Amino acid sequence: MDASPRPPRTGWNSLARNYDARMLRGGALADGKVVAPDRATELLEAVIEPHDRICIEGNNQKHADFLAKALATVSPDRVHDLHVVQSNIALAPHLDIFEAGIARRLDFCYAGPQGLRLAQLVADGKVQVGAIHTYLELYSRYFTDLTPRVSLIAAEAADRDGNLYTGPNTEDTPAIVEATAFKSGILIAQVNRIVDKLPRVDVPGDWVSFVVEAPTPHYIEPIFTRDPAAITEIQVLMAMMVVRGIYEKYGVTRLNHGIGFDTAAVELILPTYAEELGLRGKICRYMSVNPCPTLIPAIESGFVEAIHCAGSELGMERYVAERSDVFFIGRDGSMRSNRIFCQLAGHYADLFIGSTLQIDLEGNSSTATLARITGFGGAPNFGSESRGRRHGSPAWLQAGREAHRAGMPRGRKLVVQMVETFREGLSSTFVEKLDAWELMDTFDMPLPPVMVYGDDLTHIVTEEGIANLLLCDTLAERAQAIRGVAGYTAVGRARDRHMVETLRERGAILYPEDIGVDKRLANRDLLAARSIKDLVRWSDGLYAPPARFRNW
Amino acid sequence: MIPPRHSYLEASARARLAGILDAGTFREFCGPRARQTSPHLPALGMPVAFDDGIVVGEGRIDGRPVLIAAQEGGFMGGAIGEVHGAKLAGLIERALDIRPDAVVLLLDSGGVRLHEANAGLIAMGEIQRAVFDARAAGIALVAVIGGRNGCYGGTSIVARSCDVIIASEEGRLSISGPEVIEAVEGIEEFDARDRALVWRTMGAKHRRLIGEIDILVRDDIDAFRDAIAGHIGDSRPMDLDALEAEHARLVDRLSRFRDAADGRDVWARLGVNDPDRVSDIEADEFNALVDALEGARR
Predict the structure, then answer these.
(1) Is residue B6 part of a domain?
(2) HSE (side-chain half, CA atoms, 13 Å) at A133
(3) Cα distance from B146 to chain A (closest Cα, Å)?
(4) In Å, how far is A441's CA from the nearest CA of chain B?
(5) How many CB atoms lie within 10 A of CB A505?
(6) Labelling B191: which of A228, A270, B126, B240 has CA 20 to 30 A away?
(7) In the prediction, which pLDDT does B2 show?
(8) Are residues A32 and A148 in the same domain?
(9) How far is CA A28 from each of CA A43, A515, B178, rounded to the nearest angstrom?
(10) pLDDT digits (tens, 9 = 90+) for A257-289
(11) B204 and B257 housed in the same domain
(12) Is A247 contained in some domain?
């Protein structure tokens, strides 16, 4: 039998030779590794080739915005049909390049504010979406089939050898750099300043191809700041139920909080409500989260002992730097964040808790809304059962005993959704069928975009009570447990009274009085901080909130 | 450190009254049971409030009789419509009949309610006249500012017509709101989203430093109560001499600060050593600073 025919090879190092050719073209525009900002467009035209896979670093905080703008001004005759592989579509130039024909294909994670425009460009045929990923998935594919040929990244500072300092917003940079630099890809960094000596080296210079000093500092968005003044008494009540009905019950020590006012309320009642219950040192000790300002009182009062961060948060830099027992701080004195490691830590923690927009009767939840492509970000990984986990912890083992009442003993991660029964505009959070189904048809997706699957979810907390899905044996029971905490929504009003009572006796439905939560205490007096100014006070003036959050 | 727990800023109008008056002394006039609601809002398909967003009545502070009004910022931003305005004007007019030790106005308002602008503007005139009548009769009027809506538009004129103004740092006092200035003059002139700038321009600390507010307290209902109690019966003369002195002060201020681009420039010229810190210091430290400045001037 003949061997199958193979295409002729030109050797085993074609990528490296191609890298050398690109560097020769780009090097003509550079002084060593440094390229002047007014030659950025020329540089991109010189080193990018048609059909390249390209990453423009940009996640929900830090953005290589100057290089993104430069890419949007290259000639589509020279640079075209790019395949964009990057986590976030957040800035206008990210989509301008599709409109101009510079890029054609897109694999990404999250679209946020550009979601509406992206949906229109997809409908017009200007963007061919490969897939919408979670962060961990996309960066995993960087090391299999989606390795970038060129990556445009953002750092705080560089020296003339190309060494980079990212400052506290290290975020996704290590993953992008690793995949690009070690597969003969071109790595161009925009930096806020070029200096003689860096405070610390986050990326070694010999991995970096070119450095451009941007005329203005890279854009950073303070997206994790929640003003305690906007937390409602309903949210305080739900937070009390989370503390008693979940954190205290299971003894949750390692966890991830989603971003939102619901979880901010939990953070702010730790120094008051949980302290009075004697829970300091017993719950909420290790967290995988961004340095949310609403965590300050819980840190200062000794609840939260250690935090690893995916990114940083504007205004928190000094506070974080002065708390090196809590945060991960370099010898230069500033934090180093890392999205991948934070995602992994959160995945193997005892608990994830977050919020969502819609939940169906199986417990599937989605933040997708019609006419908009938003994507996933990190929540599906944080908010999923960690079936590969093997080490025990009290919370994981106790949840496992509830989940696996017969056969092989197993542990179980707690995955909690915390929602009010009605959202803004009196639309119901609980629905018979998610909008995600319709979205799948509209945008021709392979699956409905579900954030957390029902079989990953263990608890739903509403202002009515807690549904413990681990104690439901059938889908019919699960549906009734969900109806039982869905209040006065249509889903809630369709509950079977007898089944709900049975489930309550079993502990699959818990109302506040069942777990010792006194609803009369649920008011804002329980919040350790009730304003941004209170957070500044707790931090001894180390937290410097951005101007938009101030009322002084 | 656990910060103060009874925030005036967060409290409703009724909670503020309960915290400021002696317990059990409040008697409301024209309360929600009377259902005197706006005649204009239903025509626009807008919801009404049974008290039209203001609570008026009488009570005691440290045993001394007062008339008191509290605007509810949660209803239409405390804006003044026909009924709201009539309740406020009527309360102040009543002072001439019963001669209380003070009329206390807890203001939390953007000014006239645009949905019933003509009636609201007429009401403003009536309120203004009632304030001057009461002051001419020697009755002390105390204006209190510390709600989310600040004190804007016609309400700010009423406040500046009172004998004394008490405010917390979170309070704001100005004729035009930040968004209005930005819309009219452009974002280069005034960026309404820069909240620190808003407070440096209209916030109570700035107003205290330039002499438009008399007392600054921390955001705490008890602190407000104590400050009000300390000024019951303190009326200032309202005569030609007082008016001319005020005009001279304003002319002087305009010439001194005409070219100051930011509140911090004004504070520096007033003799504040570290203007950048002013926004961040607590009420006690701020008041010590003000005392030192005023002592130096005397």
Answers:
(1) no
(2) 19
(3) 11
(4) 38
(5) 9
(6) A228
(7) 55
(8) yes
(9) 9, 70, 52
(10) 998 999 999 999 999 999 999 999 999 999 999
(11) no
(12) no
Q: Please give the residue range of the domain that contains residue B284.
A: 239-298
Show the 3-state SS of A256-301: EECCCHHHHHHHHHHHHHHHHCCCCCCCCCEEECCCCHHHHHHHHC
DSSP-assigned beta bridge partners for residue A31:
A34
CA dist., res. A48 & res. B134, Å (int): 79
Query: How many Å separate Cα A519 from the centre of its chain?
Result: 32
Q: pLDDT at position A458, please?
A: 98
CB contact under 8 A, A229 and B10: yes
Query: Are the CB atoms for B72 and B78 separated by under 8 Å?
Result: yes
Count: domains in chain A: 3
Q: Say yes or no: B153 and B207 in one domain.
A: yes
Distance CA A53, CA A146 (A): 7
Q: How far apart are CA B171 and CA B162, in angstroms?
A: 16
Q: Does B274 touch chain A (CB under 8 A)?
A: no
On the question of pLDDT at A373 being above 90, the answer is no
Widest Cα–Cα separation across chain B:
58
Q: Residue B298: CB partners within 8 Å, gap ≥ 6?
A: none
In degrees, rounded to 5, the angle at the alpha carbon of residue A72 between the alpha carbons of residues A67 and A78 is 105
Task: Say if CB A509 and CB A467 are below 8 A apart.
Answer: yes
- Looking at B185, B210, B235, which one is the last position of a domain? B235
Closest residue, chain B, to A526 (C-alpha) = B5
Model pLDDT for residues B97-107, shown as the tens digit of each residue: 999 999 999 99
- Do B228 and B253 lie in a common domain? no
- The CATH number for A193's domain is 3.40.1080.10
User: Residue A302's domain spans which residues?
Assistant: 222-240+252-349+518-542
By Cβ distance, the residue of A528, A530, A549 closest to B7 is A530
Structure tokens at A425: 């505009």
Contact between residue B95 and residue B67 where contact means Cβ atoms under 8 Å apart? yes
* HEC sequence for A517-551: CCHHHCCHHHCCCCCHHHHHHHCCCCCCCCHHHCC
| Inter-chain CB proximity A548 and B203 less than 8 Å | no
Q: Rounded mean pLDDT of A391-398?
A: 98
- Taking contacts as CB-CB distances below 8 angstroms, the residues of chain A near B1 are 300, 537-538
Contact residues on chain B for A537, CB-CB shorter than 8 A: 1, 3
Q: Enter the ipTM.
A: 0.75
What percent of chain A has pLDDT above 70?
99
Co-location of A158 and A28 in the same domain: yes
Same domain, A381 and A490: yes
Q: Nearest 5°: phi and psi at A361?
A: -75, -10
pLDDT tens per residue, range A500-509? 999 999 999 9
Average pLDDT, chain A: 94
Say if A533 falls within a structural domain: yes
Q: Per the CB < 8 Å rule, is B280 touching A547?
A: no
Residue type, position A140, single letter? S
